[in-house]
Amino acid sequence: MGTLSRLLAARLMPNDCFVCGQDAGPALLCGPCRADLPQVSEACPVCAIPVQDGLVCGSCQRTTPAFDATVAALPYVFPADRLVQALKYGNRLALAPFLASLLEAFAPPDEDAIVVPMPLHSRRLRERGFNQAAEIARPLARAWGLRFDAAAVERVRDTPPQASLPWLERRLNLRGAFRCRGEFAGRTVVVVDDVMTTGATLDELARTLKSRGAARVVNRVVARTPLPA
Q1: Right CATH for 40-224 from 3.30.70, 3.30.310, 2.60.40, 3.40.50
Q2: Which tens digit of pLDDT belongs to each residue from 101-147?
Q3: Do residues 11 and 3 touch, judged by C-beta distance below 8 A?
Q4: For residues 195 and 53, what is the distance between their CA atoms, to the nearest angstrom?
């Protein structure tokens, strides 16, 4: 009955494709736009920045981040940027399961991993009303059959936006920004986020998780910003 109801609803109230506006049926994107989503081909296995031959990039070789691996579903270019921004700033919560589905194929390396979202500071959470990373992580953990814990880590410092700061100041800006509320001794933690830019925030979160015993921290991000031109 549930399937029949969904099919009937899709026929009576079809969606317009979020990208091109054409009939998408029950989906958020039509078939051609879904097929044309930009792909991340060869990337650094640690930070997911595009590199030739998929080798560890020079930056990660010079300074090893606290996290162990990163996978990004899309490069942060059109239309991925519009999808993420519509969820984050436009309250289009229906996009969260779709973005989670893009990450579903990139399974975590450990069947006993814990899935945690990048936390928001309580002030920003009150202003926005939801944590977009948690909205993506929840259906992703369900699809993987893994434990999801939105309260495992909290953001205790409401730091200035990273985009406005030089690299060194970005790292200093995040010192002590997170606090763990649980123990992760010997566990793999999968951190889910919407966009990865420099990786400084994910690095600090991984550092915090490992200080509480996490054996590995791996990132699954919807979109990765490209290298600057």
Answers
A1: 3.40.50
A2: 999 989 887 888 999 999 998 898 899 999 999 999 999 999 999 99
A3: no
A4: 23
Does residue 222 have a pLDDT over 60?
Answer: yes
CA distance 136 to 222: 9
Q: What are phi and psi of 23, to 5 degrees?
A: -60, 125
Domain ranges of the chain: 1-36, 40-224
Rounded average pLDDT over 56-76: 94
Name the residue with tokens 């990373």. Answer: 133
Tell the residue number behind the tokens 């015993």, with chain if given: 213
What sign results for the dihedral spanned by CA atoms 196, 201, 204, 208?
Answer: negative
- pTM for this predicted structure: 0.87
Q: At a CB cut-off of 8 Å and minimum separation 6, what does 141 contact?
A: 115, 147, 148
Which pairs from 141-149 meet CB under 8 Å and 24+ separation? 141/115, 143/100, 143/101, 143/104, 144/104, 144/107, 144/108, 144/115, 146/108, 146/111, 146/113, 146/114, 146/115, 146/190, 147/113, 147/114, 147/115, 148/114, 148/115, 148/116, 149/114, 149/115, 149/116, 149/182
